[in-house]
Design a protein that fits this description.
The protein is built from 20 helices and eight strands. The protein starts with a helix and ends with a helix.
Amino acid sequence: MCKTVQYLLLFGLSLGILNAQTRTEKDLLGEKQIPANAYYGVQTARALENFQISSLTTQSYPDYVKAFVMVKLAAARANADVGRLKKDRLAAIEKACQAVIDGKYHDQFLVDLYQGGAGTSANMNVNEVLANIALELSGHKKGEYQYIEPHDDLNMGQSTNDVYPTAIKVALLLHNDKLLKEADLLAKAFHKKGDEFKDILKMGRTEGQDAVPMTVGQEFHAFGNQLDAEISALKKSEVYLCEQNMGATAIGTGITASPGYAEKVAAHLAKITGKPIVMSKDLIAATTSQQGFVMYSSTLKSMAVALAKISSDLIILASGPRTGFFEINLPALQPGSSIMPGKVNPVMPELMNQLCFKVMGNDLTVTVAAQSGLLQLNAFEPVQAIAMMESQGLFFKAMPLFRKNCIDGITVNKDVLAHYMDRSVGVVTALNPVLGYEKTTELAKEALATNKGILELIREKKLLTEDQIKKLLDPATLTGQK
């Protein structure tokens, strides 16, 4: 066989293999070979080349994938309602959307979360994947867009500028439900400890100094109530996420969208998500403004501030064991030093603190990105989405660990607390109504000078009977529970 014939055969064979492994798609910039088994298309392929930034992609957050698809499903139904999308195409799109909502095809949502173009690549990734799933489920081949087209059908009456922020809001709403459940369980864990420790007296402190008596139970119920307040704020912040701008299209004027579509897509999205989603009264303002993200992110930051404060309080209350407060014991999870034998560190509160610091930083990212948008569109929504979804994810994973590995196992060192109560000058405040401020001030001064306890001096000076002392130092009386 001559070399020319061999070359032609090899060329034909390689061309056949190439054609079998890829399909040709084209866009504004020209043709591109797409893997034959890929459900994404040409614009996704370009994004995969342009934005190799992080290991985070749309599929990294399953609720984000579902949210995008829910938006597309609502849009398709709204377009069918106004008579624009054909019923057979709607049926195919509905099947494709439901498959993804059920957890299938998530590996096709591959665009890096960090991207230029205000989310256009992410939106087109969804359009292309859903179109090709719908094609296959309808008996067609991937890429046969004459039957169902990513732009004309999946993006009908839409723009990235209304789809993308709406998808982010829906994703945050979906994951917020899960976050609230974990936060509620954590708050309940603190309240359970509050009940367990309700009769154990201790000294409260202000500005790091002895203040007045309280119970350990009151302290832990206070931790729980702080979280309850943050949970309430997080629930209330959902109202800002429920206002969406679908129907705004490019800048809020609704160009390419049909009359009545905007109202119908909001109604469909509310039904699909089970959330009270409404159309913004001013779509131009809603497309320009980032209020929903700023408000929700600030609530996550508030939760972080509370959790960090509580974590730091637990660290100092457990400090010691010989030279610190040592009022409580945190579960011993691991050796605390590579050099100091016997050292055990408060690793779970430390972990929670670090995550809280990250959430606080993420809120600053959202703030700066929201402020930096120009005119009718904010191009920095991708980094806001990353920041908020990361904050949600950190809390969702950390809260159950914090609860199970730390809070549930906390115990109290009663002897240490009793010693502090006996020695503290702070008890003197409870004697003001009986002995008067001037006399109690003298007692406090003498106690500090002589290193004696207040009760010790009272007994030496016979200022009160044992019965009076017992009544005055009753835990319920001292702590305002009577």
